[in-house]
Amino acid sequence: MRLFRKVRWKRVLLVAGLVALIGTVPYAWVLISSAPYRFKAEDVPETPVALVLGAGLRDGRPTPFLAGRLDVAADLFRRGKVKVLLVSGDNSTVDYDEPGAMRRYLVEHGVPERFIVADYAGLDTWDSCTRAKRIFGVDRLTVVSQVTHLPRAVTLCRRAGVDAYGVGHETWDDYRGTTVQQYVRESVAAYKALWEGVVVRRDPKFLGPQEPGVIQALDA
């Protein structure tokens, strides 16, 4: 009986170890594949467009995490690192207009409205990246998100066929507990990224006609 218990626990530990190892593979993939393309604002290469990913509203205004992303994008615009800001978020109901709120915030913080383009069907990271390429005709961009989310965002944009770099908003000092939760969430979300970006490469939930907004804003 004692020998049986030893064998059983060895099997349990072996299985647990294998599960833990397999669980780290997708997250390691997004970290490693995106590492050469993640920068600080002062160091990122110039690109025509910054893709700012949505992160929720509170009473119709950007949440602190979304406001942080928008502040980073506005800083990139002022530095001349990007020329146009493509704000991508959820507008699936009349009462919830994430891109509209993002646009208003940027205008309030000094970005001319003619250089802001809204994608109202950026329902998740993969959709935002693929729509930037297929609907808005963007081939090269800087994706803006939190530092925690940036590896997945850069990886998925590059898997969508975009020459993508990334700049992140750092939240560790102000939101340490939430930041830890975000890292845990990203380790799980990496499975979804692997599925969408490598295995199935699905279409975005909404395609629709080509949108000329980015090209027109660049011409302006």
Automatic annotation (TrEMBL):
Parts forming coiled coils: none
Please report the stretch or stretches of sequence annotated as the DUF218 domain. Answer: 49-167
Which GO terms of the cellular component aspect does the record hold? plasma membrane
InterPro entries given for it? Cell_Envelope_Assoc, DUF218
Q: What's the superkingdom here?
A: Bacteria
Name this protein carries in UniProt: Vancomycin permeability regulator SanA
**What is the originating organism of this protein?**
Saccharothrix violaceirubra
